[in-house]
Amino acid sequence: MLRLIIVFIVVLSSFISNVKANVISKAFSALKAYNYFEAKKLFEKIIQKETAAASYGLSIIYQRSDNPFSNIDVAYKFILNSESSFQLLTEKNKIIYLKYNVSQLTIDSLKNEIYSKAFETYKMNNNIAELNKFIFNYASSPQCSEAIELRNAIAFSETKKKNTHQEYSLFIEKYPLAKEISDAKERYEFTYYKASTINNTLEEYEKYLIKKPKSQFLFEVENAIYSLSTMKATINQYHTFIKKHHKNHNVETAWRNIYTIYTADYRTESLVDFRLEFPDYPFSDNVNQEIALSQKTLFEVRENGKWGFADSLGAIAIPCTFDWVENFHEGFAEFGLNGKSGFINKAGKLMIQNTYEQVESFKNGLSIVQQNNKYGIINKNGQLIAPFEYDEISEFSEGLALVAQKEKYGYLDLTGKLIVPIIYSKASDYSEGLAAVELEGKSGFINTSGDIAISCKFDWVENFHDGLAKVKQLSKYGIINKKGNYILKCEYDLLGEFYDDVIMVIKGNKYGFADRKGLVFINIEFDYNRSSMLSQKFKNGQVIAEKNNKQGLIDKTGKYLTAKDYERIEPFSEGYAAVQKKNKWGYMDDKMKLQIQYLYQSADEFNNGIAKVLDKNGKIGFINQKGKTVISFIFDGADKFINGFCLVEIENKKGIIDLSGSLIIACELDKIAPYYGSSILKLEKNSKLAYYNLLSQGYLWKEEGY
């Protein structure tokens, strides 16, 4: 009985195996015939028993695109199922599966096809979500790294479009291994910097620096802090900046700017005061040197056609190596070399390179310079305060400089900022807080903010002096105050200048006088001629009054101080007035008594007890108040005495005399000029140069051949 049972089981097993084999065979045959419905049904029927083969077949069906069951993710699930089941088969079964073309090799091949197709499918959508699904579901695929790179690239592209530091931060957090991470970090830093300083305020930059002390934008941030902290370029602002931001790389510049502003006039007193007020100045040795240099007097000298400087003892202090030089102003001297201009200090040190076409002497620490036919402004540190974009720049007046572009005018402040737009067809320097400007053919005044202070309604205006300005309307002149109110209405043909708070007013061919309140206190009744404007002005409370070609002197009440019958008369000076009768000049005293006879062709006022007069031979000499000749009549020309000396001329040659008439310098020179107001004279003879000290009456230096 047992034997029969065993035989039955063997027969049954063989039958079942044959049945299964028959189903698998039919399934693969249906698949081969593209009968996907039958194949799918048969594979699903035996999948529990023949997992490896059935899963392989189903994977093929789902992998293909020519049937309604196409689904690459399902195909991938079945190929993984087939692979894991196949590895559990016996070698015998693996051999049996070969007749269905199911092997590790075909499974691997199909799996790679699925990988490729899946990647192309997910990549086709070109979005992060789909690529993330592929990366998650197909983590072991060869395409996974490419998918990650593509996903990262798309994410970074979208991040760049948004271009905010928040988005870059999120990218860095989500994709730390992305090849774009370095770029992302740079963009994060930049956008964070820009967002943190979006309003360009000092507070923003200071807060940013606290958060990012090692920022890659540290240089720019420090520059912004410096610029915003010192916008008005004052000593106080620079010093406050130094104390608050002592690590800023602009601290040295701030210190030098403090020094430049404080010592702009380069007076020894200013330099000493600076040293006392700023003992922490990091370049104190330079200050000590400058104090010593400021006390030196140097003169431009020439040797062998080249220029340099000599000291007050006549020794060459700065070698003659320049094509030309100018005198020192505020411690700097202009020089020219090889067609370019620059500056040296009194030690002969090059302070500003000769890179400019033209330079002007420093005034208040600033110089107007030219490059490429355009003008700009530099300070003593060589920093460009105003760019080279102007056709003209005037010297600063009341903290503003007139500039021109294309025949229009505006104004810069001391920092080089354009305060008043370049819109005016004419403009002048500022005076008493106002500047005369012309707009659309009419003139008026603007204030230092550039606002119209007095409307442009005049045909012509003159700058304010002592609170008043002359104006012109409809060919008539008047005077206004700083509120634009008339002091004198525009009803005069001409106006003189204020002297002793009195101004000449002219109507037709008559003149009178008005005061600063606009009151015509001396009637317009005197005869006007062209010479009147020059000579008929109040001096020492008196003025010339002319009628019927005769002159006299009147006071501010209009009362005559003298007779009215002089051909010409000059105001009293040192108790004497020059008067003319019958074309000859003499002098009378303040009691109207003639003290010096009518002997001269011309007569000047008395000065230091003597007066310059012209004799009948056309020669100039000097007389005293008794009419005695104190300096002989030998000169063809003579100036006034200043500090006891007078420049005189004989036959176009110049010399110097003292009050006694003695020739201090013989009349043999072509030019004589005071050396910038000092007692030193700059002399020129036959194109050769020399310096002469009037006090010691000796030469300081002579050019060879003088």
Features:
706 residues, alpha+beta, Thrombin, subunit H, four-stranded antiparallel beta sheet, elongated, disordered N terminus
Mean pLDDT: 93
Shape: elongated
Rg from C-alpha positions?
51 Å
Query: What would you call the structural class?
Result: alpha+beta
DSSP E strands, number: 45
Beta-strand residue fraction: 25-35%
Q: Termini, distance in Å?
A: 157 Å
Strand order of the largest sheet: 4-5-6-7
Largest sheet: 4 strands, antiparallel
Helix content: 25-40%
Please work out how many helical segments DSSP would assign: 17
Poorly predicted regions: 1-17
Overview of this protein structure:
With 706 residues, the protein is an alpha+beta fold. Among the domains are: 19-158; 638-706, Beta Barrel (Thrombin, subunit H). Helix content is 31%, strand content 35%. It contains 17 helices and 45 strands. The strands form twelve sheets. Strands 4-5-6-7 form a four-stranded antiparallel β-sheet, with no helix packed on it. α2 (36-46) runs antiparallel to α3 (51-63) and α11 (202-211) runs antiparallel to α12 (218-229). Mean pLDDT is 93; it is low at 1-17.
Sum this structure up briefly.
The protein has 706 residues and is an alpha+beta fold. The longest helix is centred in the N-terminal third of the chain and has 31 residues, at 2-32.
Layout: helices, strands, pairs:
Elements lengths: L1 H31 L3 H11 L4 H13 L8 H15 L4 H6 L7 H22 L2 H10 L6 H19 L2 H10 L6 H16 L5 H10 L6 H12 L5 H10 L6 H12 L5 H10 L6 H11 L4 E5 L2 E5 L5 E7 L1 E6 L2 E6 L2 E6 L4 E7 L1 E2 L6 E6 L2 E6 L4 E7 L1 E2 L6 E6 L2 E6 L4 E7 L1 E2 L6 E6 L2 E6 L4 E7 L1 E2 L6 E6 L2 E6 L4 E7 L1 E2 L6 E6 L2 E6 L4 E8 L4 H4 L7 E5 L2 E5 L13 E2 L6 E6 L2 E6 L4 E7 L1 E6 L2 E5 L5 E5 L4 E7 L1 E2 L6 E6 L2 E6 L4 E7 L1 E4 L5 E6 L2 E6 L4 E5 L4
Antiparallel strand pairs: 1-2, 2-3, 4-5, 5-6, 6-7, 8-9, 9-10, 10-11, 12-13, 13-14, 14-15, 16-17, 17-18, 18-19, 20-21, 21-22, 22-23, 24-25, 25-26, 26-27, 28-29, 30-31, 31-32, 32-33, 34-35, 35-36, 36-37, 38-39, 39-40, 40-41, 42-43, 43-44, 44-45
Helix pairs in contact: 1-2, 1-3, 2-3, 3-4, 3-6, 4-6, 6-7, 7-8, 9-10, 11-12, 13-14, 15-16
